[in-house]
Amino acid sequence: MNITNKTILVTGGGSGIGYATAKYLSEKGNKVIISGRNAEKIEKAGKELGLDYIACDVTDAVAVNSLVNRMESKYADLSVLINNAGVANLYKLGEGAGAFEKSKQEFETNYFGPVRLTEALLPLLKKQPEAAIVNITSNVSFHPLVVLPTYSDTKAALHSHTVALRLTLSKETNIKLFEVMPSLINTDATKEMGGEQHGLPPLVVAEDIFKGIEEDRFEIYVGETGRQWADYFANPVAAVENFNHGLF
Q1: Range 78-99 burial, b when 16+ CB lie within 10 A, else e
Q2: In the chain, what's the furthest Cα-to-Cα distance?
Q3: Is 42 helix (H, G, I), strand (E, B) or coil?
Q4: Residue 1 is assigned to a structural domain of this protein
Q5: Active site residues
Q6: Which among 3, 36, 39, 176 has most CB atoms closer than 10 A?
């Protein structure tokens, strides 16, 4: 799929992967709009990048509806949606862990958010000559990390949803559905888990998204994810234990 001269919406565009992806795709000749729940942060990012920006919390139905109305009225040529907004809680399951509240917060943003926004924007995307949805999941979508247990749950759910929606849309529309599975990336959100020391720069994800879409690779593995995927399907038990070595 051609990924130039497109109008693209990137959620969670105020920092990290979203910021880097918005910047990279803009430099490739696309009109990029970024959104984020923190109004000051997304305004700052928009001004730094010279991009249009919209404050929107993807867990808020009213805010999402407003965002969709704005896209329909001002960006009717929207052809690419990148669902990147996400939150994660670093902890371990067990007595007193607060897993219910943590998972509820994570699912609202990481799963229900993109599910709702995607469905709401499908009518607009269907109008374009070619269109794409890009869901950012993770290497934990196929094997959980015990210190990101319910975050892993959300990404596994989004992976499953992505596969089902891809098959459905392939029969009914010209919308292509891509899934991006990064390994550890150096962002503000990964500092507590060694992102600064061991993570890849967010630009790597942006570059792989661009290449993956161009090459119609519907599952885009970033960093160590491709090797981890192969290891998991060769021996799931050993792969999960190796992935969590020293953490349990």
Answers
A1: bbbbbbbbbbbbebeeeeeeeb
A2: 52
A3: helix
A4: no
A5: 151
A6: 36
